[in-house]
């Protein structure tokens, strides 16, 4: 062999090594979500649901079986929602218990907005004013469920049944 032939062989060997390195880098991608090809797949390699994942997303605009569809605005709620429970002493007493738990800190014991927070926050409305007496029960149901500007929503904490009883107690404060 001559020097020229040896140089060509080294060039070809270097080109081969570079090609193998390039194919290795391009062909190797680590992605744990890719399905591996196996001759005999094991049961442990089957599809699984990882934490915080689900097989299927629910269809758009679907509602859970135990879900409740509420009107979107307070005006719609005021027109459409009616209190399904007749006022009775028992219902009003249970509503008072809900009021004492959730409403007294802001609205005060008589619903006048004189709260125990000591003027640190904006004063809640006086529920005994004529403008609130004339509101339908659906208005209060929506406000208790979703809240308003300074009132937090209590839909997560007070069941619909308890909200209607609470409204009966508020009505007793307005009379």
Helix-strand blueprint:
Elements: H1 3-27, H2 74-80, H3 89-102, H4 104-107, H5 130-133, H6 137-146, H7 160-174
Helix pairs in contact: 2-6, 3-7, 6-7
Question: Which structural traits does this protein have?
Answer:
175 residues; mainly alpha; Cytochrome Bc1 Complex, Chain D, domain 2; 7 helices; elongated
Descriptive notes:
The protein is an all-alpha fold and 175 residues long. Helices cover 45% and strands 0% of the residues. It has 7 helices and no strands. It has helices at 3-27, 74-80, 89-102, 104-107, 130-133, 137-146, 160-174. Helix 2 crosses helix 6 (137-146), helix 3 packs across helix 7 and helix 6 crosses helix 7 (160-174). The longest helix is centred in the first third of the chain and has 25 residues, at 3-27. The radius of gyration is 34 Å and the shape is elongated.
What can be said about this structure in brief?
The protein is mainly α and 175 residues long. The chain has a domain at 74-174: Orthogonal Bundle (Cytochrome Bc1 Complex, Chain D, domain 2), CATH 1.10.760.10. It has helices spanning 3-27, 74-80, 89-102, 104-107, 130-133, 137-146, 160-174.
